[in-house]
Write a structure and sequence with these properties.
The complex is a heterodimer of chains A (111) and B (114). Helix content of chain A is 0%, strand content 57%. Chain A is mostly beta strands. In chain A, the strands form 2 sheets. In chain A, strands 2, 4, 5, 9, 10 and 11 form a 6-stranded mixed β-sheet that branches. Chain A is globular. With 114 residues, chain B is mainly β. Helix content of chain B is 0%, strand content 54%. In chain B, the strands form 2 sheets. In chain B, strands 2, 4, 5, 6, 9, 10 and 11 form a 7-stranded mixed β-sheet that branches. A 4-stranded antiparallel β-sheet of chain B has the order 1-3-8-7, with no helix packed on it. Chain B starts with a strand and ends with a strand. The chains are: A mainly beta (111), B mainly beta (114). Chain A binds chain B through residues 31-32, 34, 36, 41-46, 49, 51, 89, 91, 96-99, 101-104, and chain B through 4, 31, 33, 42-45, 48, 50, 55-56, 91, 93, 95, 99-100, 102-108, 110.
């Protein structure tokens, strides 16, 4: 069974700092990988989706990379803002329809 | 588009009662997913439907849980009888017909079983 791990579990940074969130998965046979954001008491919002054939995706200040062979992905957030404070979840999709989620990284950006 | 709609948003019930959670997927989406989120286990897939047909229900914890999708615009997740350990946030998500598309999540139903 696919297992997804996210490190660190929690992270606090001062506003303006660049940061990296890490995600690792045990089975490299994936269809795609997604990064989601979850605000307290809310649902999940998809941030970036990387297909298995891609190495990275960018959206604004966010950049996600994928190294399928080593089972790793990173989410890079540039010039962090207090509004970036949330829990960030990584999810991998194997060949079937399912998504396997990591336990998340809780990010706090301090003004 | 209103996005994925879930009701109720909050549910408090007593142990042994029946609980029904509802979901309306995004119009035109043909895949629907039910997830459960707890502090201990994170997000877990319970069941998913494709074209209204249950494809994989291996995540359903036990026979007390059942899910239906009578048509493309409505699904229910039922717990009968409910137990305190069922307390969690239940999310519904839907995805469009193109396989590469992301899943769109509803706001969730926060269930507390006393």
């Amino acid at each position: 069974k696919q297992e997804v791990t996210q490190i660190p579990a929690a992270l606090s940074v001062p506003e303006g700092e660049n940061l990296v969130l890490n995600c690792s998965f045990t089975d490299s046979a994936i269809y795609n990988l997604q990064w989601f954001r979850q605000d307290p008491g809310k649902g999940l919002t998809s941030l970036l989706l990387i297909q298995s054939s891609q190495r990275e995706q960018t959206s604004g200040r966010l950049n996600a990379s994928l190294d399928k062979s080593s089972g790793r992905s990173t989410l890079y957030i540039a010039a962090s803002q207090p509004g970036d404070s949330a829990t960030y979840l990584c999810a991998v999709r194997p060949g079937a329809n399912n998504l396997f989620f990591g336990t998340g990284t809780r990010l706090t950006v301090i003004p | 588009d209103a996005g994925v709609i879930q009701s109720p948003r909050h549910e408090v019930t007593e142990m042994g009662q029946e609980v029904t959670l509802r979901c309306k997927p995004i119009s035109g989406h043909n895949s629907l997913f039910w997830y459960r989120q707890t502090m201990m286990r994170g997000l877990e897939l319970l069941i998913y439907f494709n074209n209204n047909v249950p494809i994989d229900d291996s995540g359903m914890p036990e026979d007390r849980f059942s899910a239906k999708m009578p048509n493309a615009s409505f699904s229910t997740l039922k717990i009968q009888p409910s137990e305190p350990r069922d307390s969690a946030v239940y999310f519904c998500a839907s995805r469009g017909r193109t396989g590469r598309q992301t899943q769109y999540f509803g706001p969730g139903t926060r269930l507390l079983v006393l």
